[in-house]
Design brief:
- The protein is an alpha/beta fold.
- The protein folds into 3 domains: 72 residues; 238 residues, Rossmann fold; 78 residues.
- The protein has 14 helices and 10 strands.
- The chain starts with a helix and ends in a 14-residue tail after the last helix.
- It is a multi-pass membrane protein.
Length: 465
């Protein structure tokens, strides 16, 4: 809009300038009035641009306000029942009875899911993706209501309990921890605003992160950055565990809390989770089966229902789906370990080869320095060549001399590496010298025959006139 407005204004200014210039040349208008006209037009352009910008801002704000009012009109699909009551206390007894649920009527998510979690026990949910593991958590947290069946907590139907009182007794440690761009103390107190500093410190000690926070320059007042950007994955997970300890719930939901962590960090997180799970009911979603071997019961979900149930040893003895998944993961872990060993071995051999090459190069330099005071290779080749001109038996003598030289070289008081390298270089020099001797002898004989200094050994008949 400002562009069109400026074009119109500039067009009007040009027309006004042409008219005023014509009147000045015709004597109808003075030059001072022409300058006054240009000044007024220039001062008028700023307010007009402001009104155009202000109108555009009002228009955009009105559109955003309409969208916000549309959000206010949205009604939640899960609300408290008219006769719902608050859950004052919770022991952590969970029971799913023939629960059916679907996001889309064409593909059910849960089909008759039934299991029981006793207070203070840990239950693991495993299975392929899309088996309904996350749906179990969403139904318990009252994000959705099941189509049929019942979900009970301490013998009460969750639909008869208020949502706020239910969620007050549930703590979640997600895979991706959500942190605000504030201090660590602010993020920790988000779980319970009334928590004291001593309670915060005790929870961080239980989560094995108190000492790490104190090592930061600002301690608990350290800014974590947007979504916890300044913290590592393990530190964010331990902050989430400390926040759950501060909330002090009776039911804990772990949704792949250690999936994106390395082995060493995972061990520390597992220790913190064991501290967190004492006396509480814990539900765990895990794809890495090695993290759930100590759970009281393991549920294998397949197509929205429990396919297998039992402890780790019981499921391995049953040789079913869980045993197959365990074998695959053990095989993959073993292959990864073997690949790591081979990679480390290859790196070690590469380092050894590089060091041996450096030693060999230094040995060659040392051998060259020690041989330089005596006869050089070029002098020996000159002697061999001159001996070759005398007779044909000299190359053999040269070979014997070379052998004697190699023998004396091997007996010289040098290091073992330098001796071997010098011997190798000597053998190559001997071969090169013998080749040069033969070649020089043949060249000398051809030159002598051509000049007539030496008679050819073959009988030559002289022609007489």
């Amino acid at each position: 809009m400002n562009t069109i407005q400026n074009l119109v204004f500039m067009a009007g200014l040009i027309v006004a300038c042409f008219i005023a210039a014509y009147q000045v040349t015709d004597g109808q208008l003075e030059v001072g009035k022409f300058v006054t006209l240009l000044t007024y037009m220039t001062q008028l352009q700023g307010p007009l641009n402001f009104f155009g910008t202000f109108y555009r801002m009002i228009q955009n704000n009105m559109i955003n306000s309409e969208r916000m009012l549309e959000l206010f009109k949205e009604q939640p699909t899960v609300v408290d029942a008219p006769d719902a009551f608050e859950l004052p206390s919770c022991e952590g007894d969970l029971r799913y009875n023939d629960v059916h649920f679907t996001y889309d009527t064409r593909k059910p998510a849960l089909q008759g899911l039934s299991f029981h979690c006793k207070p203070g026990t840990s239950t693991a949910l495993v299975g392929e993706s899309g088996g309904g593991k996350s749906t179990v958590f969403r139904l318990l947290f009252r994000f959705y209501n099941p189509q049929s069946g019942s979900l009970q907590i301490d013998g009460h139907e969750v639909q008869n309990v208020t949502i706020d009182s239910l969620r007050r007794h549930i703590g979640v440690v997600p895979q991706d921890t959500v942190l605000f761009n504030e201090s660590l103390m602010y993020n920790l107190k988000y779980a319970r605003q009334s928590a004291t500093d001593e309670e915060i410190y005790a929870a961080c000690r239980a989560a094995s992160i108190h000492e790490k926070i104190l090592s930061f320059p600002d301690g608990y007042e350290t800014k974590v950055g947007e979504r916890g950007l300044r913290l590592s994955g393990g530190e964010k997970q331990r902050v989430a565990i400390a926040r759950t300890i501060i909330k002090d719930p009776r039911i804990i939901l772990l949704d792949e809390a250690t999936a994106a962590l390395d082995t060493e960090t995972e061990e520390h997180i597992q220790e913190a989770l064991q501290t967190l799970a004492r006396g509480r009911t814990m539900l765990v979603i895990a794809h890495r089966l090695s993290t759930i071997t100590m759970c009281d019961q393991i549920l294998v979900l397949h197509e929205g229902k429990v396919a297998e149930k039992g402890t780790h040893q019981e499921l391995l003895s049953a040789r079913g789906k869980y045993a197959g998944m365990w074998k695959k993961q053990v095989r993959a872990q073993r292959a990864a370990e073997e690949a790591k060993i081979l990679r480390d071995k290859a790196d070690r051999l590469r380092r050894e080869s590089m060091s041996s090459s450096a030693i060999r190069a230094s040995g060659v330099d040392a051998a060259g320095v020690e041989d330089s005071p005596g006869s050089s290779d070029e002098d020996e080749r000159a002697v061999f060549a001159s001996g070759a001109l005398v007779g044909g038996e000299q190359p053999q003598q040269n070979g014997d001399t070379n052998a004697a030289r190699l023998g004396s070289l091997s007996m010289s008081p040098r290091g073992s590496t330098g001796t071997l390298i010098a011997a190798s270089m000597g053998s190559r020099t001997a071969e090169a010298a013998s080749g040069n001797v033969s070649e020089n002898a043949s060249i000398a004989q051809r030159e002598s025959l051509r000049s007539g200094a030496v008679r050819s050994p073959s009988p030559v008949q002289e022609h007489r006139d």
